[in-house]
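[step 3/7] fold_predict: job queued, chain A
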Amino acid sequence: MKRILVTGGAGFIGSHFLDLLVEKQAGQIICLDAFTYAGDIRNLETVKDRIEVVRGDIRNMDDLRKVFSRGIDTVVNFAAETHVDNSIEGPVVFVDTNVTGTLRLLMCALEYGVEKFLHISTDEVYGSRAEGYFKEEDAHYPSSPYAASKSAAEQLCHAYHVTYHLPVLVARSTNNYGPRQHGEKFIPTVIRNCLNNSPIPVYGKGTNQRDWMYVRDNVQALLLILQNAKPGDVFNVGANCHLPNLELAKRLVKISGSDEKLIKFVEDRKGHDFRYAVDTQKISTLGWKPHVDLDTGLRLTFEWYKQRHNAS
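[step 4/7] structure written:
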């Protein structure tokens, strides 16, 4: 990799991936971000002197061509709208960004002869299952407009690989958590409300399960995929750490020293998937496994938010 374009790099996972690239001295790095509400320049504080930051939108071909014309050989696409609740209330921007934006990124990658294209997807494309684990070849049954938009983006990536031989890779990651995650997400919301002694909203009965993965583990897997996978490969990335939302909230309450009485059940989300679970055998063949256990990761995450809460 000589010149790497990371789209959505000022977001939560993207910024941690940039940290890793800089640590590994992976090459010349350009971060392209539209700096919507989810992109924060402060997320780039640790790497700002080692990368180039460009304000631009993956939906805008002029923005893309200005960057690609400088000799990009590797693309890692984190740019996306990601919050399920927002997609239920306003799905159009999810299709615009996640589908049309990905298409235009693929078009430019083909036009300028990119050598590697890693698209960051989600385990939510599979939909829900009560037991067992989804494998990479399983069909998609997305439930939310967000998940549907990510599935559609994946189909475009596959089409560009098959039709145009663009060297595309896809990673389907489970729920990430850690420092810098946007406050709209579940874990930051629980932490913030613990610190403010405010009610902690939990959907339904809190029995919905997710596979929780510390963000640093995820980005290490993504770099391994980028470096070692074959064009056309798809990988599930997960920590095999399944926990109901209520139990996760209780663990954070305990870490914070708050009272479980803060937990309040609220009306369930529309179309709320019960359980996400992916088979991670394929990614393990690249020598990857998660290193940060849930209790350690939650404490690290809580301390990060607590420091910023105290400083505000």
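[step 5/7] annotate
The first strand starts at residue 3 and ends at 7.
The chain has two domains: 3-176+214-237, 182-210+241-274+292-311.
exit 0
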